[in-house]
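User: Round two. Same drill as before: sequence, then structure, for each protein.

Assistant: Same drill it is. First protein:
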Amino acid sequence: MSAPLGKDLLGLEHLSAEQITLILDTAEPLREISERAIKKVPTLRGATVVNLFFEASTRTRISFEFAEKRLSADTVNVATAASSVTKGETLVDTAKNLEAMRIDMVVIRHASSGAAQFLAERIESNVINAGDGTHEHPTQGLLDLLTLRQRFGSLAGRRVCIVGDVLHSRVARSNIWGLTKLGAEVAVCGPRSLLPTAIGDFGVTIFDRVEQAIEWADALNVLRLQLERMTAGYIPSLREYNRVFGISRERLERAPRDIVIMHPGPINRGVELDSEVADGPHSVILDQVTNGVAVRMAVLYLLAGHAPALAEAAKGGER
């Protein structure tokens, strides 16, 4: 019997390989729901999910909202710009007031690392971390794992290099934890100013030149430069960053094998990735977006207490 997820999904660091595989296996049949004429099953009918976003993120919020609605949950979006948080109410006050309205789950995105765990310890509802500070973004990590697994079959022994702004990236941390637990080799590549000083403690290989990463890797997960988080001169200029670390068609043509190109989005085109790479045959970026809805459906499904063996149940839903 596969291990359950427990009450919350706060990160991949403390999940087992079995638990991660359970989520990916659950997401596979749920992905098919999005291909139907009627993209809905009654699995979470009657459940209420609150999307509590203290940071703007259109892509992640919409993906969660699609996932919730395709499982027939009632969805409430709370943007902090329109909430009482701006009037001085604390995170816990907000959550407890929401819980008093008899909600079932909270999806939270917050600028402070640890915010999701802080909330989960104080409310009975399930909590899903949609990104907290520079800590983790577990559903993004999971959708990246699912995309790679679909391409390679197994992640064991595959080489994945995370390129770019690792310092400010919660996606990088979730990917490192998830990939290593499933047997992949992980490397990072970027300017030393954009790598955490303790990155070696993660057990990853470090490349200073993107050409080395391309020669080594089966897949590159290219991170966005998080300019909104940069308070100092981490890089000389965007043009210089692209010249030294940008992924171009010319660089990929010199690779010893076909390399899968991923990006969590949104892309700074002409900076991290040239457009012909982002839109080219190596790219699985749109597959990542599709898989994001399926993975989030799987997490909602499992946290709601449903049994892992759902392939037939999902296929037998509303058509």
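Second protein:
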Amino acid sequence: MPSSAPKVIAHRGARLLAVENTLEALRIGFAEGADGVEFDVQLTRDGELVLFHDDDLQALTGARGTIASWNFRDLRQLTVTDKQGRTGKIPHFDQVQELLAEHDGVANLEIKVVDGNGQRLADAVLRQLGQSPERPWLISSFDRAALAGMTAAGPDLPRALLIDNDPRCDWWSAADIGPDGTTALSTLAADVGGHLQAIHPHGLLLTPERVRHWHRSGLAVNVWTLNEPAHWSLAVAIGADGIVTDDPGGLATWLDAEGA
């Protein structure tokens, strides 16, 4: 075991106990012992920031269309229902900021680009975060344009590259270590304004070689989404700095039991 335990990051809140990306899920995540929370932000048709993950509304609300095709005053009337039959409401980002003000810990905001509106979404996030600069934000995205688009207006906001286990991912070159043991991290850091703080790799990308390289580059490694003790053990052994999980309470309890 490493001498320092990885941070417990609640994935979309505690989504095993409440509807993902709701205020209740975020509250429970902290109550379960999370060191921080991760959530997805999208932009409505009338320019409001809300929490929602999916590309469309159908699976969770039964409604048609995307977040970007609805005004917030109508979205707030929808009921979000998960596979376990639990219900909730789509929260406005203002509500989330009020909740976060009551808790310490990192807030990992994922810019969720659905309709190619990455620049507009990034601009809206920057305007909103200007209201709470003291919080330790960490802005992540799979979308290169969204993170790069924040460079001019938000040079001081820490950023993280979200990497899927798919070579078509925008940031794949950060995981593709060449024969000389290097990646394209310096170029990627320049793309996001030089304020790259972390790498968020899919669990299948976690290898000792990659973690060593990312650490040598000065980056934290927060792996997603691990929900089983066997996977937590591997992440700790390899040296992950944070574990994004649907089960923050289970992970926090496991870390305590392991003495991590």
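The chain has one domain: 7-42+105-258.

User: Perfect.
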